[in-house]
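pipeline/complex-builder :: batch 7 item 3
reading input block
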Amino acid sequence: MARSVTTQRKAIYTIVAWGIGLLIFFPILWTILTSFKTEAVAIADPPVFLFFDWTLENYAVVQERSNYMRFLWNSVLLAGLSTLFGIIIAVPAAWSMAFVPSRRTKDILLWMLSTKMLPAVGVLYPIYLIFIKLGLLDSRAGLIIVLMLINLPIIVWMLYTYFREIPGEILEAARMDGASLRSEIIYVLTPMAIPGIASTLLLNFILAWNEAFWTLNLTAVNAAPLTAFIASYSSPEGLFFAKLSAASTMAIAPILILGWFSQKQLVRGLTFGAVK
Amino acid sequence: MAIAESGETTVTRRTAAAKKPIRLFRNLWSKIALTPMILTAVVVFMGGTIWTIVYSFTNSGLLPRLNWVGLDQYERLWSTAKWIVSIKNLAIYGVFSLTFTLVIGFVLAALLDRKIRFEDTFRTIFLYPFALSFIVTGLVWQWILNPEFGIQGIVRGWGWESFTFNPLNDPEIVMFGLLIAGLWQGTGLIMCIMLAGLRGIDEDIWKAARVDGIGVVKTYVQIIIPMMRPVFVTAVVLITSGIIKLYDLVVAQTAGGPGIASEVPAKYVMTTMFGGQNLGQGFAASTMMLLSVVIILIPWALLEFGGRKRG
């Protein structure tokens, strides 16, 4: 009897949860569906859900009007390289804080994180000036550096949390067996740290991919990523919903696909700091 | 949990003792390893911020110049209606965003913790909005809240002709239009963090509560939530840093309109600096933003992290 009540309850919870899930997913679904409609169908009253003539016309127009591939390539380069360089700088720092903690480790960490709280507008102009002086405005190199810098605190914090979970005894055992610092890092630490690093990579790739404040303000044409691509379709003169939806779908598709195939790492990456 | 932690400390202490002979060497390496990170943080964040503060006391217009005018920029800033509106908007958005994200995030996490079917898929769906850029979120919601083609139009189409839900064109409630989009984007992340926290809580506590006849809601409020304090701290840090950054969503969804009804400080700074060619004023505004962050966050951070270090 008690068991059947629980099953019933469980079914109710499941239905409620799925209802909310559908509600949350609806805007994304609607955008994707609209991208396959003609402009006339897109603003039809009452709205058409599934039964319309599917068309790829919007995608063709969007591709013709702005070179999607160039924006995509910029996004991949900016997000990928900024995350990669960030990891390269952050791994030694997080490693030293997790395994050789000093009295100041907590302070350094807190201080690093507090920079993430500072309003970005406060450093925008100095960076803008430096960019002009060095000719980095609208260049990929400059933007990669900036994106790396703004995500660095999060990368360090995440890696630190993961590295701290690696038990110290293993290092001790390796050292007793005569492992040098180098082989200790290569053969013992790295394999154990890879899941954590993978999650960090993924989350920060997404964060850099979505970054709009810096990318919109420091780029014009050459280095503009997908965020700039969509923003260019939000022109107030005429809201072409179907084309806007096509542009949005093209911009979010890579992330949605990436997220679906790496659910575990994504969830792990997103729950950093919360699981002790 | 406590036992595991104290065990860990003994191990660390033992490790530290074991490697005493090479301690200096190891610390040297760790210092070298930390240097690039600290250097970039100091030079870029601190340097940039201080530069901005210094120039906020000048009358820089199109280009930065060291022409001191004292507190003039601040006086002018606080007598500008647009700035006052921006500050109020951010306060409204901040309070509601923090409250609702925490409450909804926790309730959803508690719901998901009931071990429902296809939990992983469900969780990914919840996280999807977070994986989108604010630009996309802003545009999508601009459309959903559009009076003709969005929710209002659909409900009216069903026959409820007098239904009105048009937040983006109503100066009174436009911030709530932004809030809905912001919540849609941010709650999934908080839910995930809360869920991880809930999973970390021992099943025995639930059993004990059941044996003692404590209701589910009461158990959550009086036992589980206090135990999840670190999780809530992480959540608050993440939400707050998101609130301060509020810019791209506004640009994409309302462009500050109607009129100046949904202006926010970050956008004010950008338009003053690049559109109005009034750098000094923009610097003063960003200094004020910085100041408010410092006033709100520092005492709290010290209390939270400083206290735990001693304990």
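note: The mean pLDDT of chain A is 81.
queue -> next item
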